[in-house]
Task: structure prediction
Amino acid sequence: MSHESTDFDPRESFKKAFDAHRSGDLDAAEMIFREILTAEPENIHATHLLGVIALQKGRVHEARDLIEAAIKVDDSHAPFHCNLGEAHRLLGELDEAEQCFLAALEREPRFSQALANLGITLYLRGQYPEAVRRLQQALEMAGPSADVYSNLGMAQLAAGDIDAAVTSLRKAIELDPHHVEANYNLGTALLEKGDIDAAAFVLEETVRTAPRSADAWCNLARALLAQSDLEAAERCGRRALELAPDQAKFYLVLGQVLADGRRLEEAEATLERALALAPPLAAQQAAIHYLLGTVLEGLGRSEEAKASLHKALELNPELGAAREALSGLIP
Result:
């Protein structure tokens, strides 16, 4: 589309596009930013914000390419690097995401969003103590945030600091009582703490207010299993799988429910499905192999049970339960 200088003012158009974007009218903002780029192809701010809109609309590859194009022209803007990092993170490109967030912080050391996003990325990479540190820095920079407290609690839980996780997750819920992730992660933390009744209460409330949260249903199944309510635990486990049928962790929990109910053939099939879906060499695979080994032992298939337990220990040498189960099988 071409524009005469008398009827098209890029600055005024940019203001309109920016206002539309800020108000949530992504379609209108995208259309105007594209008009601006037709008139000014080197306008890096329009290019960057088109990338942000693509990110918000789920067109992540396009977002990455647009924001990269803006950075190639001028790499001095911290938000450009932060948003490019988020595109990389959503694409699973965690090394690139981390480098982008660090680049944003080089340009703006107190950039709280870059700190928060870096914390999430470090958590996904398994660097839990460093994730905790970065998320705490984000809170220091920007003040209380339900999202950041929720992610901090998740990282603290993964780092083994259960009491700190419970505190952070409760702070997230104080700020946003309906924060789904904070609620189901609080349920998880309470389970890890051994406070089963409190965990079940939190998770029952979570599935009531967020009935499409597969993670909440799965964690509720775990709590009900700990309360020995196998029938209710199975219902919740199957509900999680209805919502997210490709998640290995949900099959693992259902497999445990079935194993505890001595439905060993069903448990075996469920755990085999979990193995097919779990990432290779993951701690999750070790847990699945351990449980499968105990199921195979119950079915009288000792050699297969030994092989599965050996595999669990190969993947996670610290898995004491697998070592103990294996010692019971070796004459």
